[in-house]
Every structure is written in C-alpha cells, then in structure tokens.
Design brief:
Oligomer: single chain
Structural class: mainly alpha
Number of domains: 1
Distance between the termini: 27 Å
Strand content: under 5%
Helix content: 25-40%
C-alpha cells in the first residue's frame, strides 16, 4: 500500500471506489495538523467543499484505514469492499454490482456540487489499465504543484507553498 508514516499513523491515499484520497481536503488538513502538532479545523477547509458535506471532526487517515472521516465511515461501498477483502471494487467478482450502479446515479446528482466525485468511475478504469502502483504515482503527480511539488487538494485554487495557480 502507499503508506506514509506520520507520528505513528499511516495515511493511505487510495480508496476502494477509485477516489484519490491523497487530494482530499480532510485527509490533507488532518495530515498537516499532525505534522504541526495542531488540531485540524473545519473552518479552514474551502467553502466549495465544506459547505456541501456534513460538518464533523477533521480526522481521516484514508478510506482503507480504521480512522475515517464521519461522512465516509458509513459508505456502503467501503463496507462491502472491506467485507469482501478486495483492494478495489473492480477486483470483486460481482463488479459492476448494484452498489456501483447506485453510486453512479448519486454521483451524477452531486457532480456539480462536489466535482471531485466525477473522477471515481474513470479512476477505476485507470486503475484497471495502469495497475495500482502506476495509478497512485500518476495521481500524486496530478495533485502536486508543478512548481514546488507541494500537495494540492481537490478544491485548491493556488499552491499554499509557492502561491502558483493550481
């Protein structure tokens, strides 16, 4: 797995459904808070993101861990994949299943509100084509500042390190 140890916690940047957690506002805020020995604050998240999800503790190590943001903890796809022991939904013999079909409908309904979700299905296809390791490498490059390599999130307009437009 693509793990990064931070003060005894392991961050995992991919998810069962294909969403890239490494660009998640909540995961990145929590990671930054841990690096600086502070508490991640909901009010520091971009409004474009935080205004459309239920407010909860900003604490997450990624979908594939036991420390998951409250909004993701109840995800049926996550529960199903963990129960079946698959790395990604595409690894399941039932893929695409009714849960995936329901997710596609929900994603269509929220894509204008939470545009980061529109990449999920395409990401699953890319994981299938590229393999996990290459896909994670590609995502890390995609969500890094081209100027200074700082991590970017789904809703960042500019790099917080060098102010380069994202």
């Amino acid at each position: 797995m693509n793990n990064k140890k931070i003060k005894g916690n392991t961050f995992i940047e991919d998810s069962y459904c294909g969403l890239y957690c490494g660009a998640c506002e909540i995961l990145l805020a929590y990671k930054k808070a841990m690096e600086h020995n502070t508490v991640a604050d909901w009010d520091n998240l971009p409004e474009e993101f935080s205004d459309h999800i239920n407010k909860a503790e900003v604490k997450c190590l990624g979908c594939k861990t036991d420390t998951v943001f409250a909004g993701c903890r109840r995800c049926q796809i996550r529960s199903c994949a963990r129960e079946k022991g698959v790395e990604y939904c595409i690894d399941c013999e039932c893929y695409p299943c009714e849960l995936i079909n329901q997710m596609k409908v929900r994603l269509e309904a929220v894509k204008n509100i939470l545009p980061h979700t529109s990449a999920i299905i395409g990401n699953l296809k890319d994981i299938q084509k590229m393999g996990r390791k290459d896909w994670l490498k590609y995502q890390k490059e995609l969500w890094s500042c081209p100027t200074c390599s700082a991590r970017l999130s789904w809703y960042q307009r500019k790099c917080t390190q060098c102010n380069q437009k994202a």
